[in-house]
């Protein structure tokens, strides 16, 4: 009997309908089956979405092409996975084909059955070796009272849980034990643990391996992130899809991993902006994780009666798939959900070992010597630490030596010829580099415009702070009499493979006394000997036009401060120094008492008044074009043509505006804000608007439009 499966293939972002194509097959194909199908002159990877026994209306049987091959040996992608992908495509306004195929490892697209069979054989072999448990040694410390209470509450949770734990409160141990429990409850259970950036938290992966490999064998944990080679990614994906990997530890892309036995999702540092994708489908992996857990739970609830297994007295939450969002400074969206009772809040305010959080020292820059990069009291405090053999972290959110190079005699500045931004002066290799498009050139010997030899750096970046600190601390001595060692860690020093690990190791072993760096150094590291953290230019975020800037600054400073005094012996003396021209700002008052709830309450009240998220819902329509006029014409045209659309009155459309950095790599950028009072209203309007957007691409005044994108729930406006 002939079948007419509809199949999803990779389609361009905005192809709208047509993501599902009808093919012909002589046998039934289960939904979720991976196939190879002809598309134009090529043969591509596809996913069977539905099987039909009659040809679709309007398709003459002889027009349909045959499915070329079925990928043998792979179980179909299950219904929950397909629902997740379909939801993501619809919610983030992209084509199903784009989202579904991008969720699979790239290598899978190019494999024929022979190659796939070889990979599967290798994977099965690895899994067989991996499942041989080495020993059952349990080296886990007993949980603290707070950890035990959080775990007990989690066991019966019927909602997403927000684990609100101070830095150093031992959230990881809760993740480990919750994972342990999930794996023990069901021999097929799988756990997804998401982290913002896996390279910055090698300790987390090490702890998961140390805890589970002895009991479950080497293949129990697989990593999934964009830094892996394509063959590594495929191997990890196959291990997860086959169920041989019980724990997937990954970055945002791991939210789409095929995990047939998924029972627990952990989203660590759930507030981190890197969970939101910034290109392609601009999805939030945190939000999709919550949705995915709900899908899995619903499926399990429906399946439970037929399965007939499991004690009837099992707690409500244990039967489903749980999701735990962890943070010391939750996103205001998650915090608000917990305040409303939609999320279960689990609080762990105490640090393990009873250490105190660092004391906040605000340095009023109005009262410091003019032009001082580092206030004298801060410098003195650093010298003291060095003398005691302790370490300092100095945070500056700007890499390079100086953000601008300028001529004294004329108006020349190191403008990037391709962007509306300055090229940054990097002194070490004497280059001017654009951090937006990558354009790099040698530093000119003289002003390119007037020939003046005095071209000077303006402002300071991490390279310069490192250089200045080395000079300012030249007389500082360590307990062994040696000079202070200053190092730097940012995207420039960690570019080479392995260099980040080497730098972290140097810091851990005490070979560095002062580490200067960007926010990279504020993330998850567990440094024992750091007792002073200093933030040099926090003020920019206080008055930024982006309404989320204070939230991010608060999280960054809490997180950075959390690096200090993690060893209880030092916690009494640990300090967080912040240089500011506005010490009276209310953000600092909340920071001083480590009072995230107070800060969140104040921010949420402000957002409620302004109708901002989470008290309102937003989307951005972004346009890139050859000219700013074309970009704006597309946006404003799309807004005008929305008139009369269903649900148009439920949203507010603002006029198109250029982006803060208007031009990048010779492309002009503009955006238009859409606001609605409810998520459903916003979604309804966006769906109705999609065909209008496609039509507006050909407006004569939008000639030169390069691309457009809809960003739902944008993180920056
Ligand atoms: Zn000049
Ligand atoms: Zn540039």
Chain-wise SSE layout:
Layout: E1 6-9, E2 20-22, E3 34-39, E4 42-50, E5 69-70, H1 79-91, H2 96-102, H3 113-130, H4 145-155, E6 161-165, H5 171-185, E7 190-194, H6 202-216, E8 221-224, H7 230-242, E9 247-250, E10 262-268, H8 285-307, E11 322-327, H9 332-339, E12 344-348, E13 359-364, H10 376-387, E14 391-395, E15 404-407, E16 424-426, E17 431-433, E18 440-442, E19 455-458, H11 462-472, E20 486-489, H12 499-508, E21 514-517, E22 530-535, H13 539-542, H14 549-561, H15 568-571, E23 575-580, H16 586-592, H17 596-610, E24 617-625, H18 628-640, E25 651-653, E26 657-664, E27 667-676, H19 679-696, E28 705-712
Parallel strand pairs: 6-11, 6-12, 7-9, 7-10, 8-9, 10-11, 13-23, 14-21, 14-22, 20-21, 22-23
Antiparallel strand pairs: 1-2, 1-4, 3-4, 3-5, 15-19, 16-17, 17-18, 24-27, 24-28, 25-27, 26-27
Residues 416, 418-419, 434, 436-437, 439 line the site of one zinc ion.
Describe this entry's structure for a reader.
This protein has 717 residues and is α/β, with parallel strands linked by helices. Helices cover 32% and strands 20% of the residues. It has 19 helices and 28 strands. The strands form 6 sheets. It has a 7-stranded parallel β-sheet with strand order 8-9-7-10-11-6-12, with helices on both faces. A 6-stranded parallel β-sheet has the order 13-23-22-14-21-20, with helices on both faces. The protein has a 5-stranded antiparallel β-sheet with strand order 2-1-4-3-5, covered by helices on one side. Strand 26 (657-664) and strand 27 form a beta hairpin. It is globular and about 85 Å long. The relative contact order is 0.09. The site of one zinc ion (ZN) has 8 residues, from loops.
